[in-house]
Amino acid sequence: MDKYRILVKGIVKCNEKYLVVEKWYDDRIFEPYQWEFIDGVMSFSETPEKAVQRIVEEKTGLSVQVDKPLYTWGFTAGEVCSVGIAFECLAQVQTVVLSEDLNDSKWVSKEELSEVITNKAVREDIERAGLTSSFDLNDFGEVDLFIEPMD
Question: Quick one: 30 exposed, middle or buried, by C-beta within 10 A (0-12, 13-18, 19+)?
């Protein structure tokens, strides 16, 4: 089993609006459905750009053009170290056909992102991507995402 995996995140933009999707997390938490950007795991032999295009298309039906990388992140869960790359992706249309693992979607303006998204980690994504300055990460305390050394 690999001890590393590469994640990609598509922050999809069309006509100055950003696509957010509602994903189920866990019935045991206060908000089991949460809004976020599209993400997934890169497959072996894919480039990060091809992976994010594939994942966005599989989850939303949208064909996107990768514009640029926005930021990277990493974390360790158990014995697996995950490294991620977030990309800004451009769509030509806003017609979304959701995969079964997503509950809903909507296009929101840059200013609306902080109103729609309540998940702390996704709000940090917004700040790292430079998409809004309507909230301050210091309001949420210390960020404890890090990569632990592997043995």
Answer: exposed
Task: Please state whether the predicted TM-score (pTM) of the whole model is above 0.85.
Answer: no
CA atoms of 102 and 18, how far apart (whole Å): 16
Question: What are the CA-CA distances from residue 96 to residues 70, 85, 107, 116 (Å)?
Answer: 23, 23, 10, 18
SS3 percent helix, strand, coil of the chain, rounded to 5, is: 20, 40, 40
Q: Regarding predicted confidence, which is higher, 107 or 144?
A: 107
DSSP string covering 33-77: EEEE-EEEEPPTT--HHHHHHHHHHHHH---EEEEEEEEEEEEEE
